Amino acid sequence: MMRLVSSDDSGVREAALGGLLELAKDTTLGNRSLLADQDRLRRLLWGRIQSIRMMAPEDLDAAREERQLVDSLWIACYHEPSTLNREGLVVLPGEESFEQPPDVAGRFFEPLRRAPLQRAAPSPDERSDPGNGTLGGIMLLLGPAPGNSE
What we know:
Layout: H1 2-5, H2 10-25, H3 32-35, H4 38-53, H5 57-62, H6 64-78, H7 83-86, H8 106-118, H9 124-127, E1 134-135, E2 138-139
Antiparallel strand pairs: 1-2
């Protein structure tokens, strides 16, 4: 798999880096498979880092996943940020980090999330059901609405 990391095809490189990252994170193997070729892995990753650093800006955009995989693999194996991370090449300005997807619906649910915080906790007297279908001033919707004859 390490031979595939230096492939000319970016899809093959990304798949190989993803596979190596899974091996590095696999605790059942104890990282024995990667530790056997530690020097070779470091040289391969360093070579990928150097070629990413030399890329033109439009090529950096195309190699987004590879940049993130190389950095994640470096962190998983060596427990330190890679040179790409230190130079700000993992997530470029204007890009979103792949760990946090964009919040596209949060503004619709924000009032619903804040409503329980604005309401004070009911006292023990308010917690009992007064018998009119409400519980502490909250309408319980367990069936058809009152007055709705179906």
